[in-house]
């Protein structure tokens, strides 16, 4: 059973709470060392947790954001491969966020809904802003 294998816990709200509040409740209920948030349109690769865990355990203050690729809507296969690359995005004045290969992965901005961090960092930052 996948629920037992992955130690999944489903939390159901009685009323609509909104995306960020739902993620926040999940973050505070999580019991693992690493808290990860993905959206339903994200397709993790095989062994996707290994590089994320490596970065976070090397520096527990690290927040890891996955590279967002394009998926074919009919096959759910990637339309371009970025496997094995370290990619960063930047915000431009055109309010675009192009991806590029980078040696230095430290960036001052990130996508707020797709991320992984150590539990201690989650607690230190206070989690998601409940007013969002």
UniProtKB/TrEMBL annotation:
Gene Ontology molecular function, alphabetical: polypeptide N-acetylgalactosaminyltransferase activity
Keyword Disulfide bond: yes
Claim: Disulfide bond is one of the keywords in the record: yes
Domain Glycosyltransferase 2-like span(s) in chain numbering: 6-83
InterPro entries according to UniProt: Glyco_trans_2-like, Nucleotide-diphossugar_trans
Keywords: Disulfide bond
GO BP, sorted A to Z: protein O-linked glycosylation
Any one GO cellular component localisation term in the record: Golgi apparatus
Protein name: Glycosyltransferase 2-like domain-containing protein
Organism listed in the record: Perkinsus olseni
């Amino acid at each position: 059973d996948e629920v037992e294998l992955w130690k999944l816990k489903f939390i159901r709200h009685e009323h609509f709470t909104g995306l960020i509040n739902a993620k926040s409740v999940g973050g505070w209920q999580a019991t693992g060392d690493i808290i990860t948030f993905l959206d339903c349109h994200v397709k993790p690769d095989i062994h996707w947790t290994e590089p994320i865990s490596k970065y976070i355990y090397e520096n527990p203050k690290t927040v890891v954001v996955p590279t967002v690729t394009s998926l074919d809507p009919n096959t759910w296969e990637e339309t371009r491969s970025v496997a094995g690359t370290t990619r960063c995005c930047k915000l431009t004045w055109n309010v675009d966020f192009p991806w590029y290969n980078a040696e230095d992965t430290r960036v001052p901005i990130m996508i707020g809904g797709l991320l992984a961090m150590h539990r201690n960092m989650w607690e230190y930052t206070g989690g998601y802003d409940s007013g969002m």
